[in-house]
Amino acid sequence: MTIDIKTNKWVKLFFIISITGAIFFLIFQKIHFNEVISILISAKKIFLLLSIVPLGVSLFFNAIRWQSVLNAMEYEISLKECFVIFMAAIPFSSITPSKSGDIIRAYYLKNKIPLANTVGSVITERIFDLVVLIFFSLIGIYFYGAHEFALIIILFMFLLVVLITFTYKVSKLPIPETWSLKIESFFISIKDLIKNRRILISVILSSFFIWILAILQTMLLFSALSITVPLFFLIGTLPIAILIGMIPVTLGGMGTRDAAIIILFSAYATSGELLAVALLYSLFRYWLLAIAGLPFMRIATKGL
Questions:
Q1: Is the dihedral of CA 216, 222, 226, 228 positive or negative?
Q2: Residues contacting residue 218 through CB under 8 Å, at least 6 positions apart
Q3: What is the pLDDT tens value at each position of the chain, 304 positions in all?
Q4: What are the start-end ranges of the E strands in the chain?
Q5: CA-based nearest residue to 236, from 224, 254, 218
Q6: Of 5, 23, 207, 216, which residue is the least packed, with the fewest Cβ within 10 Å?
Q7: What is the Cα–Cα distance from 86 to 98, expressed in whole angstroms?
Q8: Beta strands in 149-201 (DSSP E)
């Protein structure tokens, strides 16, 4: 008995949308919708506008990082092209679990780089994101003293190690060639980065700047709603919410990330205020970016 691949994808999408809707249904059983709308309307517009600045700057660091990873793999792609393709992938990554839509970049570069190699470079970026988020969380937890969250981040560290180990072991098994090539390309890109210290440092620094800017933007979103959160507490717990949002069960991490923010920051604001912050986070870092990326899809499809 064969299963149609397209049908399977639609079933998976329906499942993900259902989980996202179910989580928000449960959230709004505890929080009045009108209360959240009222809080959002009262947000200080100056802070919302200022929050766009670190977001915009981070986009360039994302392009720089991806270009560095490709350079380590000995592919010369201009920074302009990396930026355009990165932006063109955002509409897809914003509505897929764990930003898996980012692999659409492979389609845009299919005439220049083998598909598996581009996918390998994107996976490498995701691994650096995970490592940096875990690092920031450990630093924040240590300096703030929120040791009750240490177990959560240690669990994520363990899962990351297990994931990489499992992926490496699977690559040695007789699996479909398409998957084998993608996994192999990922490990090759990591090896190439380790060999080239200059590029490795560039990737590490870019990753740090990307998430420092994300933390700064989130601080501005809290300020827009007049919520004061200690800096190290924010550094320690925001990565946990983001990591939870990366679990591939909802659209763009919505629902799981929102619930995590409500729980983790409950000592500093009401549930309604925290849900408003979470919705602003999704709005600025996913949906507005998705809209901004639409014109770049046309450019990337036509070629630069």
A1: negative
A2: 234, 238, 277, 281
A3: 444 445 576 777 788 889 999 999 999 999 999 999 999 999 999 999 999 999 999 999 999 999 999 999 999 999 999 999 999 999 988 877 766 668 889 889 988 999 888 888 998 999 999 999 999 999 999 999 888 888 889 998 998 888 888 877 766 666 666 667 777 888 888 888 888 889 999 999 999 999 999 999 999 999 999 999 999 999 999 999 999 998 888 888 899 999 999 999 999 999 999 999 999 999 999 999 999 999 999 898 876 5
A4: none
A5: 218
A6: 5
A7: 16
A8: none
**Domain residue spans of the chain:** 5-302
pTM: 0.89
CA–CA dist 91, 304 (Å, integer)? 19
What does the block give as tokens for 239? 């990565």
Question: Using CA atoms, how far apart are residues 242 and 238, in angstroms rounded to an integer?
Answer: 6
Residue whose structure tokens are 């072991």? 169
